[in-house]
Amino acid sequence: MNCEQLVGCFGMERSGFLYRGRHYAGDRQAQPKSVGHLTDFSCGETEKGPPPPLQTHSLREFEQHLNDLKKENFSLKLRIYFLEERIQQKYEDSSHDVHKRNIELKVEVESLKQELTEKQEILDKALSTSESLTNQNEEELQRRCEARQQEILETKVQLLQEEVQLARGRAEKMASLAEEESQRCLVLERERMMMRKMEEDEEECEGGSLGARLQQEALAEKERVIEELTEERRLLSHRVGELEVRVHDLSSSLQKKDRDAELLRGEMSQEKSCVQQEMQRNEQWSNEKGDVGNSH
């Protein structure tokens, strides 16, 4: 219902009686009392018996006051209507703005979610690439370290094997020299025995003075040769003893080097096994990480 319909219901125009109800009673009270008396006098001429002046005047005032109240009530209703329209308009505008803002916020949230998803994918790819490069670098570094360690161990084993071969050659050479010296001692011993036997045989033979002198010279020469052979035999025996000690030392050193080489071979085998296990673990870890990344 609009303003004209409200005014039509009460039978008056919008511009006529708005906000007059309260002041109209005041204007009525400001009128002179003679008006009431004139009204009473005119009424008395037309009617048979004039009613009491106070009663007629009170009824008119009551009717006028009632009309004023109706006008004031209409004015209040009209104000309430305008206020309700204004409130409704503000509510509709506010609701429309809130709905529009809500839609804009939802669109912005979805856009931010999409951007966050894209950034997260880029970050995951970067992390995966970084981890892959790190793993490759670690594997390459580990492979180089293992190759270097393997090369060092192989070099040590080769050096030990060469030292063992040299020690064996020296031991064999010393053993051969000892055998030669021993054979030479035996030869000298046989010669000494033969010389002594010859001396004994010559002593048994009888001869002239020349023969005795020659025999003495030969005997002295034989004694000298025997002494030289004895000294040489003693020196050779001492030399053989030294050679035997060196052979024993070389044999001990050879055995120690054999043990060291065996230990190095064991360490190489163990290190190789550990490296293979570590490589298998790294490969398994890389495969598992790749599977987890694919699942995400």
From TrEMBL:
Coiled coil: 59-170, 212-246
InterPro entries to which the protein is assigned, alphabetical: CDK5RAP2, Cnn_1N
Domain Centrosomin N-terminal motif: 58-126
Location of region: Disordered: 29-54, 247-296
GO biological process: centriole replication; chromosome segregation; establishment of mitotic spindle orientation; microtubule bundle formation; negative regulation of centriole replication; regulation of mitotic cell cycle spindle assembly checkpoint
Basic and acidic residues bias locations: 247-270, 286-296
Location in the cell: Cytoplasm
GO CC terms, sorted: cytoplasm; microtubule plus-end; mitotic spindle pole; pericentriolar material
Pfam families according to UniProt: Cnn_1N (PF07989)
Keywords: Coiled coil, Cytoplasm
An MF annotation (GO) of this entry: gamma-tubulin binding
PANTHER family found in the cross-reference section: CDK5 REGULATORY SUBUNIT-ASSOCIATED PROTEIN 2
Protein name, as recorded: Centrosomin N-terminal motif 1 domain-containing protein
Annotated organism of origin: Coregonus suidteri
